Amino acid sequence: MRVIGVLAAVSAVAAFAACTTSDRAASDSAAMTDTGAMAADTGMANVATSDPDINVAGGGLPAGFMARTDRADAPISGAKYERSGDAWEVTTGPAHILYSPTTVGNDSYSASATIEQLEAPKHPEAYGIFIGGRDLDRPSQAYTYFLVRANGDMLVKAREGDRTRDVIKWTASADVPKADASGKATYALSAQVTGDAVKFMVNGKQVGSVSKAGLPTDGIAGLRINHNLHVKASPVTIAGG
Predict the structure, then answer these.
(1) Which contacts qualify for 52-55: CB closer than 8 Å, 24 or more apart?
(2) Which of 65, 86, 160, 163 has a CA-to-CA distance to 32 between 20 and 30 Å?
(3) Which fold has domain 25-240?
(4) DSSP state of 87
(5) Distance of alpha carbon 43 from alpha carbon 149, whole angstroms
(6) Each residue's pLDDT tens digit, 14-44
């Protein structure tokens, strides 16, 4: 599948006001295209037709941030970011990554953000953070991403160009909170990069650890949010590195 980056930034005048499941057996291959990756991240087969994006009117991005949608035909204007204290209330719209080019981690560092699910989606949808981003506006894009969903699962994947591969397949964890009866849940997420490993944390507890070898870890860090969600997300911050 041809991959075309969707890159957007909003001017400072707009600022925040204008303010981006288990894999099915058929999706267990080592790599897949952008649309296949989104299907695996959501747990939906044929996601483009069976579960279309519900775009949001009046969408836009925070000033100084950029985004790239998973699908070339999905406009980032279908995702809406509204300032909420030191975070954003986010409604999607298309699955995408959001990042500032100045949020960069190298060598040993920790990338962190907090995401709150504000209401239950139609089915469990994923959200989280990515690290090691490079060429994010090009077909050669690469990054490592760490996702959770409100049924208690976590996932780690690596993207290389228009393909992704599993690092940790969707795995249930007692330390990944499930949403309450109202559909709400809170996740303080971090990816801690050391000399030889990457550790993944949820609410201060380690839920996974993998070898650093072969993974994109040096580069831009940001948010990854799947489609048709209503969440509150803080910008990714870097400590060290």
Answers:
(1) 53/78, 53/92, 53/93, 53/94, 53/95, 53/227, 53/228, 54/93, 54/227, 54/228, 55/79, 55/93, 55/94
(2) 65
(3) Jelly Rolls (2.60.120)
(4) E
(5) 11
(6) 333 333 333 322 222 223 334 445 555 755 4
